[in-house]
Amino acid sequence: MADTILSIENLSKKYQGKVALNSTNLKIKNGEFVALVGQSGGGKSTLLRLIAGLEPMTSGTISQNNQLIHGINSNTRVMFQDDRLLPWKTVRENITFKKPKNSETAEVVNQLLERVELQGFADAYPASLSGGQRQRVALARALFVNPEILLLDEPLGALDALTRSKMQKLILDLWQERKMTVILVTHDVHEATKMANRIYVVKNNKIEATFENPLAYPRTDATCTNLSTTILNKIIDQD
Length: 239
Description:
Blueprint: E1 4-15, E2 18-29, E3 33-37, H1 44-52, E4 59-64, E5 67-68, E6 76-80, H2 91-95, H3 103-115, H4 131-144, E7 149-153, H5 161-178, E8 181-185, H6 189-195, E9 198-203, E10 206-212, H7 221-236
Parallel strand pairs: 3-8, 3-9, 6-7, 7-8
Antiparallel strand pairs: 1-2, 1-4, 4-5, 9-10
Helix pairs in contact: 3-4, 6-7
Pfam family, one: ABC_tran
Keywords: ATP-binding, Cell membrane, Membrane, Nucleotide-binding, Translocase, Transport
Organism: Paucilactobacillus oligofermentans DSM 15707 = LMG 22743
């Protein structure tokens, strides 16, 4: 069994007295692909931001590799629904933002662009790219520093169905190649069951259920139907 890479204990977050996340406990093994699903406002994205250190927690602890996280978690990278590319910088400059520019850096960028099928776009500006291409640049940017944990905050939500399916496969391939840990936030239960080997239902500002997903990769909507239905019923259950 792989070692625990991320341990969350009694984690809570309040905004102006309103509970966004309540006494949440979670352990994730090194190399796992897990998904957080649930209705809007349940605390999924809040949990992701706390793991990344983008916001301070109200109480509780987050440990990565047995080290308590305080402030920005430099061993993670977040990919958001909006690509957040800087329009005045080229693709290469967006990927290497604030990093030293040398021959080694250039080679890493070239390898990443080839892997996300954007070779030849290094000097292009974001305005000339499609939505799917921009998200692939955002993915390359997140992977540039080789993070231990990749945090995906609904990065595929705005893409058309075909582009989304291709991005799902690309992310899964990169996860398996790099043996990194991935945490995906999504409203799409089918996406969660196609991609993750464990799915957490976040409801009422805490984790209310956990579903193991033993299905072999690659998965299809058809093979995931039963598990997706079970998870969806848990999300909409009013108990």
